[in-house]
Write a structure and sequence with these properties.
25% strand, DUF2470 domain-containing protein, alpha+beta, single chain
């Protein structure tokens, strides 16, 4: 993480658990479309800070780190959900185009 901003280690851990447990398919969709890994077979969130979200992505039998910047610097926790929803919608649209 480069710019933790308002996101403590505990908060990041909670968000990671939620994303990896409940939104694994969305993580993969985001990484395929926005993370430059169209051939990815799996993705798990590994971190976030005020400037972006980080994943470990399985692609070609190798795990790669992927960082995707947020549209703007986040300053509070509720913005994370909105930004991830935006990314997911953008990624789905890109993959269906």
């Amino acid at each position: 993480m480069t710019d933790a901003g308002p996101f403590t280690e505990d908060v990041v851990g909670q968000i990671m658990r939620h994303m990896n447990d409940d939104h694994a398919a969305d993580c993969l969709t985001i990484c395929r479309a926005l993370g430059g890994r169209p051939g990815a077979t799996a993705a798990r969130m590994t971190g976030l800070d005020a400037g972006g979200i980080e994943f470990a992505v399985a692609d070609g039998g190798v795990e790669h780190p992927v960082r995707i910047p947020f549209a703007e610097r986040l300053t509070e926790r509720p913005q994370v959900r909105r930004e991830v929803v935006r990314m997911t919608q953008e990624a789905r649209a890109a993959l269906s185009a």
